[in-house]
Amino acid sequence: MAVYADMKVDCGPDFVTLMWTESRPQADTSLLRLGSCFPTSFSAGEAYFYVDLTDCNFRILVTGDVLLYSNDLTYVASDDSYNLAFTHPVVCAYERPKDWYSSQQIYDPVFKTYGLGDLQFTIGLMNDDFSGPAEFTSYPLGSIIPIMASVVQKTHQPLLLLLEECVAATTPELHPESTMYPIISNKGCLLESVSSQSKFEPRQKSSEMRLSLQTFKFAMGEEVFIHCKLLAWDPNGLDGTKKACHFVKGHGWELLDDLAQSNLCDCCESKCKSRRQRSVASEKHGMVQKAVIGPFTITDVNS
């Protein structure tokens, strides 16, 4: 914390209050921002924020039984200001509720972040051009659901993100009695691409995957959750069990990351196995994270 100011943060059950007390006479406290939020009130030398956790672009990190909500307090210095711009982290920690996935009041179901070691996985529903989170969670049958997953690597060499498995279900946690609908299986085969317009979109970067999923007839009008296994892997370690394959009409199964190696997708019609001998060393090339998207609903436009 800078010596010229004092910051006091109070983490409420579903809100945060922050008081910034500034000692520099030239500082304009109206230029402070908490994430995307302006001060709730400000005066000479003070700025006060009272914001909901669902506002201001708070980031959510899950670590075991703890939920961490993090954001940045920034000072946006004007061009003629004598004061330099700065950023301070703001973090609130909560015990993870048992019904975290289904809670609607506090926790945003559209986008979720998961921590695993020094990797941070994120997956969520996106808007049509993948430029931001989805603005709604109800999709007519036959429409496209844009889904994006990514992994942030803090100390790792560049990793390739893969969706190893995804199933739709009517419950936020999978149980033996859960009604399920397979979307991706067999170690990265997009089954839905065979009979629909579902496809993997071209990568923007190796640590990110974009999926255009055409809605299917499943649990119409009910809450739907998609359960996925995300795999961060060595970009040079693709094989029959480390891949992203989708079916292209008129061409057959294609490998997203290298058309020349599309033969790795031949097993999508049978059982995919690794051609390499498994070893402890090879397992260290990647990490797997389970994640859940939702809830959202699929509606029948004809009903």
Describe the structure.
The protein is 1% helix and 45% strand. By secondary structure, it is mainly β. An eight-stranded mixed beta sheet has the order 11-21-18-13-14-15-19-20, with no helix packed on it. The protein has a five-stranded antiparallel beta sheet with strand order 9-10-12-17-16, with no helix packed on it. Strand 6 and strand 7 (66-75) form a beta hairpin. It is elongated and about 70 Å long. It starts with a strand and ends with a strand.
Topology:
Layout lengths: L4 E7 L3 E8 L9 E3 L6 E3 L2 E7 L6 E5 L2 E10 L10 E10 L15 E6 L2 E7 L12 E3 L3 E10 L6 E10 L10 E6 L3 E2 L8 E2 L7 E7 L9 E10 L11 E4 L3 E4 L24 H4 L3 E13 L4
Parallel strand pairs: 11-21, 15-19
Antiparallel strand pairs: 1-2, 2-5, 3-7, 4-5, 6-7, 7-8, 9-10, 10-12, 12-17, 13-14, 13-18, 14-15, 16-17, 18-21, 19-20
Summarize, please.
With 303 residues, the chain is mainly β. The protein has 1 helix and 21 strands.
Question: What keyword list fits this structure?
Answer:
Immunoglobulin-like; elongated; 303 residues; mainly beta; 8-stranded mixed sheet
Q: Tell me the span between the first and last alpha carbons.
A: 58 Å
Radius of gyration: 22 Å
CATH class category of the largest domain: Mainly Beta
Largest sheet: 8 strands, mixed
Pfam families: Zona_pellucida (PF00100)
GO molecular function: acrosin binding
GO cellular component, one term: extracellular matrix
Keywords: Disulfide bond
